[in-house]
Amino acid sequence: MDVLSKSDPQIVLYMKNHEDVWKETGRTEKVSNDLNPVFMQPIQIVYKFEERQDIRIRVFDLDDPGQSIGMADFLGELELPVGQIVAVRSLTKALDHPRFQD
Fold first, then answer.
1. What does the alpha-carbon distance between residue 96 and residue 89 come to, in Å, rounded to a whole number?
2. Phi and psi (nearest 5°) for 40?
3. Smallest Cα–Cα separation from 10: which of 85, 81, 26?
4. Fewer beta carbons within 10 angstroms: which end of the chain, N or C?
5. What confidence tens digit (pLDDT) does each residue in 50-60 have?
6. 27-71 pLDDT tens trace
7. In the β-sheet with 9-16, what is the strand arrangement from edge to edge?
8. For residue 5, what are the CA distances in angstroms to 44, 54, 57, 58, 72?
9. CA neighbours closer than 13 Å in the CB half-sphere of residue 16
10. DSSP secondary structure, the chain, as one string
11. How far, in Å, are 14, 33, 71 from residue 63 at the CA level?
């Protein structure tokens, strides 16, 4: 994890399938040296109003060019139903990280 510099965050989005298995759905670009990144690359999903769709948003710190997500530092994650996002204009949530749980 970056100690002397800012993070280089990237988001990876997962959706839970009908077998309750998380599958990667998309990724944003990496934003270099930014603690409050604005991601420009959208991740599109198909929203099905009549069924519950859960997503997991994970944020990683990619320090080196070409670094895989598996080797990147995990910064945190958020799980929620897609309907919760669709239902509001703006949504702010804190990321969870196992190291910082009560």
1. 22
2. -95, -25
3. 26
4. C
5. 999 999 999 99
6. 999 999 999 999 999 999 999 989 999 999 999 999 887 888 889
7. 22-27, 9-16, 54-61, 73-81
8. 31, 33, 23, 21, 15
9. 12
10. --SSS---EEEEEEEE-TTS-EEEEEE----TT-SS----S-------TTS--EEEEEEEE--STT--GGGSEEEEEEEEEHHHHHT-S----PPB-GGG--
11. 22, 9, 10
Could you tell me the pTM of the whole model? Answer: 0.86
Tokens 């309750």 correspond to: 20
For residue 98, which phi and psi values (nearest 5 degrees)?
Answer: -55, -30
- Which amino acid would we find at residue 83? G
Tally Cβ neighbours within 10 Å of residue 89.
4
